[in-house]
Specification:
Length: 236
C-alpha cells in the first residue's frame, strides 16, 4: 500500500491486520528501546515494537545491519548513518519506509483509518481554502473521507519537513490541494481511491542542494479501510 506511493529506490515494509501486527509485534527490542517501554501500557508497547520490526526488516533489505530506532528531537526516529526514512502506525496497520540518503533527501509517510475525523478536528487542522476544496473532492469522489485524507497528508508533510529543517511546522503553514486519479473501468466497491497532492509551504521551505523548496509533492490512496499518504523529497 505505502510502497505503491513511493519511488522504487524506497524499501517499505508493512504489517496489515491483527495477524500482521501480532507477527511483527513479537519481534525483540534492543536494550535502549526496551528502556523506553518500561512503563508503557500494552497497546503502546505493541505499536512501538511493530513499527520497529518493520523498520528493521527494511534495513535488512537495504543491506544494513538492523539496529535500534530511538525517538529523537520531537519524536523523530533516528536512522542508521546513510539512511533516511519514515514510520507510521494506526489500529491494525504499521509501516516503515527507508531509503539510502544518497537517493532521496527525505521521506514522509502516514496512514490513518478511513473514517471521518472526530468532531472539531478538521477546523483545527485545515485552512479555509482546504475545507472548500475538500467539499469539491467529496462531490467528485463520494465515499472518500477527505477530512481524514487531509489530516494524513499534513502528517506526511511534517515528517518530510522536519529532518530537513529541525523546525516545527504548524498545520496552518502548509496548504494542501488534492487531485484524484481517473476512476478505473472497474467501479467495484473494493476499487481504491488514488491520487496526488501538492503541499504549498506558507513559510520559507527547506534548502535541498542549495535550492529552497516551496512545496512538497505526494501521492495518496484510500483502500482496505485505510487512507495513506507519502512524500518523497528528491535531491536538487
Amino acid at each position: 500500500m505505502i510502497a505503491d506511493l513511493l519511488p522504487e529506490s524506497v524499501v517499505a515494509v508493512e504489517a496489515f491486520g491483527e495477524d500482521g501486527v501480532r507477527e511483527f509485534g513479537d519481534g525483540p527490542l534492543f536494550p535502549e528501546e526496551e528502556a523506553l517501554m518500561v512503563r508503557a501500557v500494552a497497546k503502546r508497547r505493541r505499536e512501538f515494537t511493530v513499527v520497529r520490526s518493520c523498520a528493521r526488516r527494511a534495513m535488512d533489505k537495504l543491506g544494513v545491519a538492523p539496529q535500534a530506532v530511538l525517538p529523537g528531537e520531537r519524536g523523530a526516529p533516528g536512522w542508521p548513518d546513510g539512511l533516511t526514512g519514515s514510520m507510521t502506525h494506526c489500529e491494525g496497520y504499521a509501516a516503515a519506509a527507508l531509503v539510502r540518503a544518497a537517493d532521496l533527501a527525505s521521506l514522509g509517510i502516514d496512514a490513518e483509518p478511513h473514517a471521518p475525523l472526530p468532531e472539531g478536528v478538521l477546523s483545527a487542522v485545515a485552512l479555509a481554502a482546504e475545507q472548500e476544496r475538500l467539499l469539491r473532492l467529496a462531490a467528485d469522489r463520494p465515499g472518500l473521507h477527505g477530512d481524514r485524507l487531509l489530516f494524513s497528508a499534513k502528517e506526511s508533510v511534517y515528517k518530510a519537513w522536519f529532518p530537513l529543517t529541525r523546525k516545527w511546522l504548524d498545520f496552518s503553514e502548509a496548504d494542501i490541494e488534492f487531485h484524484a486519479d481517473p476512476p478505473p473501468c472497474d467501479t467495484a466497491a473494493t476499487t481504491p481511491f488514488t491520487g496526488t497532492f501538492r503541499a504549498r509551504l506558507l513559510v520559507p521551505g527547506p534548502l535541498v542542494g542549495g535550492r529552497r523548496l516551496g512545496h512538497f509533492d505526494g501521492r495518496w490512496t484510500a483502500s482496505r479501510g485505510l487512507v495513506a499518504t507519502a512524500i518523497a523529497v528528491h535531491h536538487a
